Amino acid sequence: MKKLIIIKYGELTTKKENINQFIRCLNENIKSKLSNFNIVTNYDKGRLFIKSLDDNYDEIMNKLKEIFGIHEIIIGYEIATLDLAEIENILLNLLKKENFQSFKVDTKRSNKKINLTSIEINKEIGSFILKNVLNTKVDVHNPDLIVHLELRNNESYIYFTSIKGLGGYPVGTLGKGILMLSGGIDSPVAGYLAMKRGVKIEALYFESPPHTSEEAKDKVEALARILSKYNGSLKLHVIHFTEIQEAIYKNIPHEYLITIMRRMMYRIAEIICARENAKVIINGESIGQVASQTLTSMRAINEVVKLPVIRPVACFDKLEIIDIAKKIATYETSILPYEDCCTIFVPEHPIINPNMKKCEEYEKLIPYKDLIYQAIKNHEVIKITPNKKNDYEDIL
Questions:
Q1: Which fold has domain 2-164?
Q2: pTM, rounded to two decimals
Q3: What is the separation, in whole angstroms, between the first and last Cα of the chain?
């Protein structure tokens, strides 16, 4: 009998001809996440198995909770036989460590060469437990303990409990996207949800010194580091946006400041996508939340790029977004009081239904192509890793 972790795939099983690609990626993500552990993995289309040579399964389980593509995480036991008598003897020893009065048996029999059906095995194992464990009864509706038995190729697996994984697809299976990461609540949540759908992210941050502070930049680095727990190490692209933002403020009617600023950001994001071989732009816009997030505004801003723009929180209300931010531990960092460039130079009455022809006319008032070229030419790239201490850990 060997202790091990069993991974159930969940949504991955809906993939047919591509399932091997998804599972291989999940296996690589697990090995990367557990690179500091002495483990061995193997997998098939039904399950992925992790064996620790140091028996530090609790630590490993905590790491696995941060990996997308996992439906359930189980600590179980591998038995190198399909013989029910041998399985029952081992099961009896395992049950001595469990505290229960009612139980049910749930058998999955992927090896169809076994003569008994799953229901017949359930009855056989259940009768054995009733005979050998005092003061127990079968309860198929609300048992204290479920005895899970899986009969596979030449091995059997026993387990009693499971932990819910993050679900979704393994990060990297659906390509790469550039996340427009501000210091607010919404964009980190958008990045998290994009990763859940298998998109590997790089982050893009616009700084505008001296109007924005070094603390605001540090805050975004801290948010990127939290997201890197799910993504693996990621690049944070920092764009010096001061000259562009000041040119907009000095030359363009103020009600159009936010619209034109966002159009410039989208142009830059698309160029970064091309350089990094990213397929989509990702942001934290939520319909109707602010002036630049009305449907008309989104259309006017989207017009300047050809790449798809995905908005994972577009139809979430603020409280729903906050709930996810708290769950993934970005909320407390996001609410630190350091302004980003999206919150400075905000006009008193920003336009909510911008006219696209006016946007094009106003943009001719500034040499935006030259400004964008210089901003990208001089942009900074920071490699973010999940292991470095969070800059705000002592504060939080």
A1: VC0802-like (3.30.2130)
A2: 0.92
A3: 44
